[in-house]
Specification:
mainly beta
Length: 116
């Protein structure tokens, strides 16, 4: 079955960097676009970034453009989110997502806290 496992979150000071990873299994990873979302309490889940199946096309939310970069390694079945110049407003639980023919799947999320 489809499984997505995020890692790499933590506490970081404003201006710092983190790299999130999402290890995928149970499906043909290289055939599917992948997405990163984030959510804070009381708010809807926000789409942060999207990457095509081959990695040749990416899209980033305006709020993170120029600071975050989505990438993938199809040999490792892993999608990444490199986050730089982090701000307190980036504090959220970050989720990876895949829309598979059998359904929409989410990981368990990884907490990112940006605070001094």
């Amino acid at each position: 079955q489809v499984s997505l496992v995020e890692s790499g979150g933590g506490l970081v000071q404003p201006g710092g960097s983190l790299r999130l990873s999402c290890a995928a299994s149970g499906f043909t990873f290289s055939s599917y676009a992948m997405k990163w979302y984030r959510q804070t309490p009381g708010k809807e889940r926000e789409l942060v970034a999207t990457i095509s199946a081959t990695g040749g096309s990416t899209n980033h939310a305006r709020s993170v453009k120029g600071r975050f970069t989505i990438s993938r390694d199809n040999a490792k079945n892993t999608v990444y989110l490199q986050m730089t110049s982090l701000k307190p407003d980036d504090t959220a639980v970050y989720y990876c997502n895949v829309v598979h023919f059998s359904g929409t799947y989410w990981g368990q999320g990884t907490q990112v806290t940006v605070s001094s």
